[in-house]
Each structure stands twice: as structure tokens, then as C-alpha cells.
């Protein structure tokens, strides 16, 4: 253990940080420096400074400068004075067992009198936390029951208290001068499970917190109460779990560790979906439906998956998805790909579809910790706004179906572009009507398979017609869907099948 300036200068600190630390040491303002990993963080280190004058030190290490050091050097600066140390002693010296340990000391003045910490159980502190949290929960429930407009403020107060507790036991101080968002962003890097609390609109903007911060008239902010209750409950269990874990680490008698079996379904499709997983764009995958076809004494399984991606699906990602869907294996896939933000943005319109899918029991893959969607009750019945983009060509589509696909003895001439437009338009509107969901994809196989998920009574006969027409006309249509000249000549039998096909999906 090195305890002089040499121990500090050998660290991978920037020259600016070294200079500021040197200034504080010259002024005899620093007693001890500790450098080490903070709790479960894999990227962030803590630099704790036990100082004589906290205000003087904070004038050197401003709030803006601390944020710069976090972003550029991945170091969180924590300034402790004698009052903070006294608070830790009162709590049982837990920080001196988890972070402020002897092997983490990189500087210490000779004048510092080190007393071996006496560790005490954290039980009284945990009991105090539970009592106050129970009071805050009751406070929030009363506001929700009365449907007060300011009920969200009660939840924010509860969240703030929980962050105070976490920062006290993990850092030694509370960052009460910072915003709730900034404190959450820092704690996410220390406790990865914190990522499961709030959906983000941007990298450093939480969707729901940003919504609540907007002071807009005629907006019913009580719609978020159900989601806030869920976050409050999850945060409580997360904080309590950390306190109990620390208490176990600092106990005189270490409790026997209980190994829990991980809940969740086994990810059985890793090999088939490997090209998709290799893109590093997948957050989670949910399996929401499965169909087993028994044809000519052979089994064929159709698996329906929702893929949550980190960014809007690129052309490359869409090609990978299309390739996976096109494989004619015993297990075939229907893949829907959306970002978490897309679903959150359309939670009012499409909650009837997504809420049934995004259940923990359906999750078969996760690349990290991610938040659940913030749901609220949706009574949307009018989807005319989603139909509007189709208005321009819907009349043309209906006219084509009425005139070109009426049964007669002559052959029918049509372009693959026209037929493809008719198919995708009608399938989109069919799914919007039955599923209350509008797919982005124009892949015919995907759209047809989704009609089976809709569980409409016509779905099975509709699938049979599609399978009959696919090798005859649909496969060629997909390959040449941009052709504007007449390149399809249909005989009366095929026309009759097409007429029956479109009548089945008319809404």
C-alpha cells in the first residue's frame, strides 16, 4: 500500500485531476484517498476523499467538473468530511467494509489517526428504512385514491428517499443537489438492476419523468399512477435487497448463501437466430405464439417472436430478419422488430396487442437489464388516424379488386406492383382491425402468419388459400413487386382464388 504522493501520481488520472488533488494536498485539506470499484459497477470507479473542509474542496471539484470526470475518466468523485464519517460509524461502518478498505488507499497523511472500524449489524437502519417507506407508500396510495393531480409528486418524493438510502450506503453521501434523472443515471452504472425502473426517451432522458416534468394544461398526469406504483414497488425491493446483502457481508456470522434457480424460459433458438444476435442490436426477445402444422405425417412449427432492438431496425437488420423468416426448416419464425421507445410512444394505441406479449413469462432472451413498458389503461376505439395514410391508394386498391378479380372467362392482366399493393394494404387493415396493431413490415409471409395469431374464424381457410396461391403467383409477385408494367397474366381459376382470398380479409 502506497500512502504518499507517488501513489496518486502513478494512477491513470488526467493531468487536470492530478493538479487539483495536488492543490488540496498542498493545502493540507485531504486526509485520505481511496480508489476502487463501486459495488457491482463494471465500468465506474470511485475516488473517495476524506477532507478537512468540504466546502473548500467542492469549490475545487465543482459539480460540472465531477460530471466531466465521470464521462471522460469513468471516475466518480466522492467528498467526505468528518460529519459523513461519523454518520457511517453510527450506521455500523459498512462503507469501510465494502469500499473504504485498506487495499483501496492510495494516499494518507501521517497525521491521520486510523482506528480499526467496529462493524455493527445494519438491522436498525433497515427497520428505519422499511418504516419510512411504508409511510411514503401509504401517502402515495392516499393521493392515488383521491385522484389528485399532484399525486405524481408524492411518488417522486418516495423515489428520492430511496436514492438517498442507496447513495448513503454505497457512496457515503447523498447527491441531493443533483436532479433525480442525474442521480438515477449514476446509480444505473453502480447497480445494473436500476436499469429496470424507467424506460428512456433518449440516452439521458427518462420517458415518464420527462412527461411529468412538462407543465402542460389539459393533460391527465394521473394516467401514470399505475406505472409509478409498479416502479415504487420494484425500487423498494431492489433497495431492500441491497441493504440485506450488505448486512450479510458485514455480519459477524456469514449466513449460508442460498443459490436461487433463475426463472425464465430456456432460450432454445440461439442457433437459428444467431445472425440476429450477432448484430448486438437485440435487447430482448419475447415468444408470444406457436403453431404446429401436421401435414402429410410431418410436423412443422411456426414460432412468433417480438424482438426489441436498441435502435430502429436498419436495412441490414431487416434483411437478416427476412432471411431467417424465409428458411424452410422444421421450425420457422415470424419476427416483429420494434424499439422499446416505439412501443412506449404507442402504448395508448397498441397496448391491447403489446401488453399481452411483453410478459416476463414470454421473455426468452435478454442481453442486459431493461425496464418494463409503462402501461396505463387504454380505451382507444377509433383507429381512423392510422387508416388515413392508406386513403390515397385505398380507392385504387378496391377498384382493382372489384374490376380485375371478378370471375369471368377471359384472362386478367395486372402488374406485380399493383397486386403487391393490394395484398399489403388489405392485410395491414385486416390486422389493425383484429389485433389493434399496425405492422411496419410488408413481408407477406409475416402478415399472413399474423392473421393466424388474430384467431379470426376465417384464419385457417385464409392460410390454406395463401399456401395455394403462393407458389403460383405470390412468390413471383414478391420478387418483382416494383414492376410497373403488366407482367402477370392470370387465368380465370387463379382470379377466382384471388377473389376469394381478398373477400376473406375484407373489413
Fold topology:
Layout: H1 5-9, H2 15-26, E1 30-37, E2 45-51, H3 54-60, H4 63-73, E3 75-80, H5 82-91, H6 95-98, E4 105-108, H7 123-146, H8 151-170, H9 180-190, E5 200-202, E6 205-206, H10 207-213, H11 225-250, H12 274-277, E7 282-295, E8 298-309, H13 315-326, E9 331-339, H14 340-345, H15 347-357, E10 363-366, H16 384-387, H17 391-404, E11 412-414, H18 416-435, H19 444-453, H20 459-479, E12 488-490, H21 492-504
Parallel strand pairs: 2-3, 8-9
Antiparallel strand pairs: 1-2, 1-4, 5-6, 7-8, 7-10, 11-12
How would you describe the overall organization of this protein?
- It is a single chain.
- This protein is of the alpha+beta class.
- It is 50% helix and 15% strand.
- It contains 21 helices and 12 strands.
- It has helices at residues 5-9, 15-26, 54-60, 63-73, 82-91, 95-98, 123-146, 151-170, 180-190, 207-213, 225-250, 274-277, 315-326, 340-345, 347-357, 384-387, 391-404, 416-435, 444-453, 459-479, 492-504, and strands spanning 30-37, 45-51, 75-80, 105-108, 200-202, 205-206, 282-295, 298-309, 331-339, 363-366, 412-414, 488-490.
- Strands 3-2-1-4 form a 4-stranded mixed β-sheet. It has a 4-stranded mixed β-sheet with strand order 9-8-7-10.
- A hairpin with a 7-residue loop joins β1 and β2 (45-51).
- α7 runs antiparallel to α11 (225-250), α8 packs across α9 (180-190) and α20 (459-479) crosses α21 (492-504).
- The longest helix has 26 residues, at 225-250.
